[in-house]
Amino acid sequence: MDIESFQKDLIEWFEMEMRDLPWRKDQDPYKVWVSEIMLQQTRVDTVIPYFTRFLEKFPSIEVLANADEDQVLKAWEGLGYYSRVRNLQSAVKEVHEKYEGQVPDDPKEIATLKGVGPYTAGAILSIAYGKPEPAVDGNVMRVLSRILLIWEDIAKPSTRKTFETAVRGLISHENPSYFNQALMELGALICTPTSPSCLLCPVRDHCQAFDAGVQNELPVKTKKKKQRPVELVTAVLKDEQNRILIRKRPESGLLANMWEFPSAEVSIEYRSEKEQFKEYFKEEYQVDLSLGDMVGRIEHVFSHLIWNIHVFSGELQGDIQEGPALKLVKAEDLKEFAFPVSHQKIIKQFIDLEK
DNA sequence: TAGCCGTGGCT
DNA sequence: TAGCCAAGGCT
């Protein structure tokens, strides 16, 4: 492999073909940081409108550091992996207080920030600061597994080190930013998971997999397990003033700190799910309920589980104590709170926002 | 290490 | 349709 020739072909292709993306307008470390967090496990087309809105609302480290977490979560609503943005704000606060608002350019320091792992650290260091650090994501592993004919299982966490070592040997010290971005862009546009466009590839002549005709056999990636089904009852509960009861989820775990309609996991047993829910609710809030028939069901698929939500409507039979994590709100005000998509579906299908 | 942690688009 | 996949990180 002629490394200089490879770098040249790759970077020249990137300069010609790179997409015009909102986070490529400058190299502001904060913007690069926000974009890299949003792009984790998320498609470019999905991220674009969120990125633009997020930077309008939180244009600087100082603004985000001082922002209300509920507003931050609201700006992330629908993007998924919500701990990303809670970690981001936490890390931004640390940069604001400990580093005088300057994102560290030191590999060891930046790696200590919450939510900044090996990939994101390398991406910020190379793109914002021009440092020759590897930024190994799924694209890079796929592309390099083909070019270098690496048969290790990229689903194994330990495999990333192999690719980091490979990148350290290949990366352009003249333009580490473009080198890393070009590798990812190539993975997104040409060297795709299925049916790669090898005939359009700028580095085809350097690709061992193409040379051997095995580009469709790489990368090696073991399958993931199926999602576990979970049965849930969720109730849209109103008081005598027609206000709807919502609550905030716990500060850790699934959908942490997001809002939802009261819900309980039920088991398939002899007792009806309606009775199980009323019992749960009474125990949790010391208030009785009158529940009607099930108004519908919603299936929502997560990475590791499937919610099968049985939706009921009902009325609160007594006064309930509101608090920071429990509120009675008018239907028209639901839009002020950050709900996961599963509960946005409930709002859309079962709640009249005019009433 | 492997499981947890979202969502929407594509095949 | 069911599975797979996308610029990962945390525990």
UniProtKB/TrEMBL annotation:
Binds 1 [4Fe-4S] cluster. Residues 38-189 form the HhH-GPD domain. It catalyses: Hydrolyzes free adenine bases from 7,8-dihydro-8-oxoguanine:adenine mismatched double-stranded DNA, leaving an apurinic site. Pfam families: HHH, HhH-GPD, NUDIX_4. Keywords: 4Fe-4S, DNA damage, DNA repair, Glycosidase, Hydrolase, Iron, Iron-sulfur, Metal-binding. The keyword Cell membrane does not apply. The keyword DNA repair applies. Its EC number is 3.2.2.31. SMART domains: ENDO3c (SM00478), FES (SM00525). It comes from the Bacteria. Its cofactor is [4Fe-4S] cluster. NCBIfam families: mutY. Adenine glycosylase active on G-A mispairs. Belongs to the Nth/MutY family. This is Adenine DNA glycosylase. The lineage of its organism: Bacteria, Bacillati, Bacillota, Bacilli, Bacillales. The gene is mutY.
